[in-house]
Automatic annotation (TrEMBL):
Ranges of residues in domain PGG: 32-143, 192-303, 376-489, 560-670, 738-847
Organism: Urochloa decumbens
UniProt xrefs under InterPro entries: PGG_dom
Keywords for the protein's UniProt record, in alphabetical order: Membrane, Transmembrane, Transmembrane helix
Domain of life: Eukaryota
Transmembrane segments: 88-109, 121-139, 145-168, 199-216, 246-268, 280-297, 309-330, 381-399, 432-454, 466-485, 497-520, 567-584, 613-635, 647-668, 674-697, 744-760, 792-813, 822-842, 854-877
Protein name per Swiss-Prot or TrEMBL: PGG domain-containing protein
One family name in Pfam for this protein: PGG
PANTHER family recorded: CASKIN (PTHR24177), EXPRESSED PROTEIN (PTHR24177:SF317)
Amino acid sequence: MVVDVDPEHHRRASTDSSSGIVTAATKEANFLWEQRKYVLLQATLAASVTYSAGLSPPGGVWPDNDSVNARLAGDPVLQVTYARRYEVFFYFNAVAFVASIVTVNLLLVHSLSRRRWWLRALQAAMILNQLGLMGAYAAGSCRELAMSAYVISLVALVSTYVCAHVLLFTLMCALTPHDAATDAVAAEAPETVKHSRKYLLIFATLVATVTYQAGLSTPGGFLSDSQGNGSIAGDPMLRGHHPDRFMGFFYFNTTAFVASLVVIMLLMSRTVTRHGFQSWALWVCTGAALIGLTGAFSVGSSRSVKTSIYVIALVAAILLYIGLQVLVFLCKPVENWVHKVQETLQNFLTLDQTESQEHQVCAVSDPETLNADQLLQKSRMYLLLLGILAASITYQAGLNPPGGFWQANATDGLHHYLAGDPILHITYPRRYLAFFYCNATAFVASLVILILLLSNIFSTQGIKYCALQVAMILDLLGLIGAYAAGSCRQVSKSVYISVLVVPVFLYVGIHVLVFMLEVFPNHATWRDMVKKKLELFVPRWLKKLFELQPEEKDEDLKWKLEKTRKLLLLLAILAVSLTYQAGMSPPGGFWQENKTGHLIGNPMLNDNYPRRYLAFFYCNGTAFVASLAIIMLLVNRKLSARGIQSYALTVCVILDLIGLMGAFAAGSSRKVSTSIYVFTLVFAVLICIALQVILVVSESVQRLVQKLLSFLGIRLEEGSSDILPHTATAGEVQDLWDEKLPKYLLLLAALAAAVTYQAAMSPPGGLWDDGQNIRIAGDSVLRSSYPRRYKVFFYCNATSFMASLVIMVLLLIKRVCRAKSAVLALHTAMILNLFGLMGAYAAGSCRRVRTSAYILALVIGVSAYIVVLVILSIGVSKWLKRIMNKMAEQVVNLYDL
């Protein structure tokens, strides 16, 4: 991390240290503690991309067994053709993955939370993670030494530029005399910096992850065999057939990756953040990342100049569209009409004005209604993230279903298919249909969740909370069904996935029940005796670790439970997306046309390394089901509070992380030595965390460490100053919809851009391999077999990507976020963006008109269900209200008589 270089700050700290003025290290620790939510987001996304890259390494895998050269299908090609480069990539990627897991664990351990020295360990893990990503990208994204050196030199140049810019601006500020105007600007600066930092962290994190994946899996695929023109197996096909386009994609994508990574590293420094915004250094890096992302998409998503020009022209068209919308909303008659429609709809939804006031009074007096509303307000961002990631993984799985695609048309009379059709549809038709309908249901349910959460009209209605619960359960059950059908080919394994949900829920339920019995005891004499014996023999540090701390204040306990629930929910959501993708596309790929008699569409790893595949499958499946169970339980506020206090959910998260590590170790390599290396890293992580926990809870170890540090001349901060303060007060829940809406739109736009970027780089239907003489290797198969369907997919996907990118650029401008008309126009553009995403899914996920019509009918049906549910519930409540009023009048008349 960059060291704080504020001279006035150091001068005050040196002169007033005795009076309690906070030092530079303390301010830096407080700053990092305030950004822990974004640190967790960055760590989990880094773990997801390194996990995927380890299971599907750059260069591809061998398509068939070769007894002459002693090669097995599914083994990494790069391991043979570029052995040193593969080793560098593997070890750097594994270090980045384990460092991400370390960061997540450090943020989840209660005993280590809010310790300033602990945050230094967190900083070290973050730096190791960033360095691992850089090294893996430099080794795996290219095959030439000069291009790898370009990546490293670009990182050094950008970092030097930003640091020099910040230092120069700091010196200029120190030499410039201060007056009232500059003091007013300085007073307003912290709020501006805080606003911009949040948005830039979300944007840069998602750009870094998507460009890392695209750089390692170059568009067009890789050569599966060496050729006579000097191309070696594992080289990108795009470099051989379109060299200029490949070089353009590499440099654009690398620029976006490096710029976003540097932005993340510098935003984690308090000094660089404050001066970097004012000197425009960080904005220059952000602009470079945006230009690089746009250029890489336009170059890599197509093979013709005309379509690349169309993609660039979309930026101007979308800006024009949003500008027209802003002008329309600024028009006075349109503004009055919008207000009238909103008031009419609001009055209809609240029955009438007096009833809404009565409802507010009842809501205040009714704790259940208040808790439901608070749950919806506090969990809105995480439910939004659940909907976004569920939509992204089901979108990708629908476009690239498990089993792969046919590389040629059917030549016999038994089957009828074209190149680019799903293999699973022919080899396992029932399994494919189960996967397709469950996946499509989960995708549409995710979009319904997003639309409900982005609607401010229904934001405080109980009916919306009910519809959200139904949509979430439908979404999660659809994910379980699609995973059970698509991740394996045997009925026994599908049953294992389906049945695994039951014991997980039973474990958590029993754990919570035991905890409630301990909190509300009905003690028997034998229980008291056992408890006293245990208290005598259990060590003091172990009791301190697991005690519930009843003396803690209620407000602190509520704050801690709420923060823990949010962190666990965020981690579980990202773990679901990660394991779902890995289950649909297992390491080693699937059998294609082969000479060894294996069934096409089955995982290669299952035939060549059966034990390794079983270890990967069960570890990955266990992590997937555990993550889904955690999400379902965390939605219930009461059950989640009991589960967190009894450590049941924490144990589930630890098992989830262990399952991820086991699946990574089993699927990322084919040798025992490399798997042992991964397990050694995992063991080192566990020892590191255990030592830090013991250091916190054991007083004897703390005294020993203090003596050792004092002998070395190092003095630790004492007392309560070691504990970092809360950054948010517990208690009232404020409705900050207008303030939060731009952040929600930015998060949604960033992840929509990520998923459409990946879909463009790896289009549905697969790519022609190097064995086809008629077609150009690396071109889209769908473009040749279904040209109309490919055009619909491409234009919908490109429009959605460019709309997301334009929305992100506009939301990074503070004036746009403050203007209600502009935010309303961006809100409307985002809804249309979701419909564009839906059109691309309907065109690319299937090859028949009937199944595409099913998806559109499902959207209409779910939307109609919500509308009918709202109208019927309000109509029934009105009818019941009239009946109750009449009955009340009759009772009053009887009393009068």
